[in-house]
Amino acid sequence: QVQLAESGGGLVQAGDSLKLSCAASGRTFSAYGMGWFRQVPGKDREFVAAITKSGDTTYYADSVKGRFTISRDNAQNTVWLQMNSLKPEDSAVYSCAATPFSNDNYFLRSHRYYDYWGQGTQVTVSS
Length: 127
Description:
- The chain has one helix at residues 105-108; strands spanning 2-7, 10-13, 18-26, 33-39, 46-51, 58-60, 68-73, 78-83, 92-99, 116-117, 121-126.
- It is mainly β and 127 residues long.
- The radius of gyration is 13 Å and the shape is globular.
């Protein structure tokens, strides 16, 4: 079991920045690839960013590339999502997740291959 807890969401204006945190506990954090996904009511869960277990490779959705940065510290059992130049269309519930498929781009981008999820944190960007 891996328990995940997100924090850092909130209400901001377009152009602002937010940094989301995801604290993990339980099984060895460094054994899991980590991802951030977001969802708005009525829409499918959307991939945002992922990072391999060692942190040496990151992947991003085209919609956030160049604005968002995912990072992790295995010593702190934490993964972050730095979000810059936020847009109203970035508004969603953001969730972090852990997958044993650590080093494969295909698996890291699909929510179907993640075993553990946090409860989510709301991000609202006003125009």
